[in-house]
Design a protein that fits this description.
heterodimer, A: alpha/beta, 2 domains, 7-stranded mixed β-sheet, 14 helices, 12 strands, about 45% helix, B: alpha+beta, 5 helices, 3 strands, globular
Chain lengths: ~400, ~120
């Protein structure tokens, strides 16, 4: 079995599992309790906070633990919007290819009177800093742009965008769910005010994540209740999960350079192999992309049938086709980079894990080539294309 | 829980009657690439009986399985029977489809009806 859907979720690292299971037994106390069992849990919680902060160049008090990336995105955006509303600033700048945790939160704010500018991400899937600058207005309260895209893996010029926002005095949030633990991030050097992350994208457990909020950036609570997380997030902390996240993040950051070098080599081998399929195209910039991300469109076939047949061959991947999302429209990300519906339906995303080797990559290439050729053999679109009745798009 | 029934997966993995009929006397194509499904049906009708039927489909697993099952349900049958083929019959023969995939069975019914209509026009 080859698991190539690490952007959806990752397998927990053995060390993180060990940490979590040990703490489920040992550190079951409530960190808010003052007796020894509670204080033991408190110590573990605060150590995890320090560890997470350290790898991002943040201070421990700037880390708020959440249930995951979606909650952190919601909290960051709604906090900035609440602040904007107080100052009469009701304009937000974002992009067309954000995660739905961001886009749907922005939709909600639109209904509440905010105006949202969604920047073009161009054919290469990369936002242009000068276009961010041009979009800023006197009433802009927030810029929210993802660090790396979840479908096509493109990495955004975060440091430049952050510098522009800092210069103009506008808060800058980045959904870094796909980037944390995979590419270097330094919240100070990168000029980031708010950053969202999720543990299960870097071999940590599901249901745990965090929000980094720069000191001095007022964050409002989404969940009312106790005074946990300095009053920013009520609810008894998931101590074993949080500690396992910190463990996994430490591991990922400690091995980042070698992991990235290996994954980049495997990614590029896979891209070269799949590029040999006629009338196919890589989605997103070939260089400024996550080390393990490969996203392709194949003309004349549909993504779900491709996924099912790859699954039959032991390869697990994902697609931005409409049929895999339960809606009639293909992925908003692929549409945002200008892929038309006809080819966006034939998309395949392979997100590699560190354990992958050349043999597995070659097996994927062989399987995709064969399955695409098979599906094209009875595709009426492919017949029309080959007979010249229809123009190739790719 | 699997997304599809065993029957759907069987017809998806081993679709029956795939291909084209060079001397078809009824051809129907429905759907569009924008929505992600296109089905094309080829019929060879003689003496008011569907002597042969083939299909080509661009689409998801259930679209391919629905096309395959629809061809099985009408092959060798009188035209009058084929005209009564419904999407429910296709979906039932596949042991059901997920709700949001029912449109695939509708497309299969429409593709057959469109091919039969083409045959009728050619022989009018």
């Amino acid at each position: 079995m080859i698991y190539a859907d690490n952007a959806a979720t990752t397998k927990m690292s053995p060390k993180a599992i060990q940490t979590m299971t040990a703490l489920l037994k040992e550190a079951w106390g409530n960190p808010s309790s003052l007796y020894a069992q509670g204080q033991r849990a408190r110590e573990i919680l605060e150590k995890a906070r320090g560890d997470v902060a350290a790898v991002l160049g943040a201070e421990p008090r700037e880390i708020i633990f959440t249930s995951g990336g979606s909650e952190a995105d919601n909290q960051a955006i709604l906090s900035a919007a609440a602040l904007g509303r107080k100052k009469g600033k009701l304009h937000i700048v974002s992009t067309a290819f954000e995660h739905h945790a961001v886009l749907h939160t922005l939709d909600k704010l639109r209904k509440e009177g905010f105006e949202v500018t969604l920047l073009d991400v161009h054919e290469n899937g990369i936002v242009r800093p000068e276009e961010v600058e041009a979009a800023l207005r006197g009433d802009t309260c927030l810029v929210t742009i993802m660090f790396a895209n979840n479908e096509i893996g493109t990495i955004q010029p975060i440091r430049e965008i952050g510098a522009i926002c800092r210069k103009k005095g506008v808060l800058f949030h980045t959904d870094a769910v796909q980037a944390v633990g995979h590419v270097p991030i330094d919240v100070r050097a990168d000029n980031i005010d708010l950053l969202s992350a999720s543990a299960h994208k870097f071999h940590g457990p599901k249901g745990v994540g965090f929000l980094y909020a720069r000191k001095g950036v007022p964050v409002s609570s989404l969940i009312e209740g106790g005074a946990q997380e300095r009053g920013k997030r009520a609810g008894t902390e998931n101590v074993p999960g949080i500690a396992a996240m910190a463990e996994a993040l430490g591991e990922a950051c400690g091995q980042m350079a070698e992991n990235a070098a290996h994954l980049t080599e495997m990614r590029d081998r896979l891209i070269r192999g799949l590029s040999g399929i006629p009338h196919s195209a890589l989605n997103g910039d070939p260089v400024y992309r996550l080390p393990g991300n490969v996203s392709f469109c194949f003309e004349g076939i549909e993504g779900e049938s491709l996924l099912l047949l790859l699954d039959d061959r032991g390869i697990q991947a994902s697609s931005g086709s409409a049929c895999t999302s339960g809606s009639l429209d293909p992925s908003h990300v692929l549409l945002a980079i200008g892929r038309v519906h006809d080819v966006a339906h034939g998309s395949l995303r392979l997100t590699l894990g560190e354990e992958i080797g050349e043999a597995e990559v070659d097996e994927i290439i062989k399987a995709v080539k064969e399955v695409v050729a098979y599906l094209r053999s009875f595709s009426p679109i492919w017949r029309d294309l080959t007979l010249g009745k229809k123009e190739y798009i790719l | 829980m699997a997304l599809y029934s065993e029957k759907v997966m069987d017809h998806f993995r081993n679709p029956r009657n795939v291909g084209i009929i060079e001397d078809a006397n009824g051809i129907g194509e429905v759907g569009n690439a924008k929505c992600g499904d296109i089905m094309k049906m080829y019929l060879k009708i003689e003496d008011d009986v569907i002597q042969d039927v083939k299909f080509e489909t661009f689409g998801c697993g259930s679209a391919i399985a629905s096309s395959s099952m629809a061809t099985e349900l009408i092959k060798g049958k009188p035209v009058a029977d084929a005209m009564r083929l419904t999407n429910q019959a296709v979906a039932e023969a596949l042991d059901g489809l997920p709700d949001y995939k029912m449109h695939c069975s509708v497309l299969a019914e429409e593709a057959i009806q469109s091919a039969l209509e083409d045959y009728r026009k050619r022989n009018a």
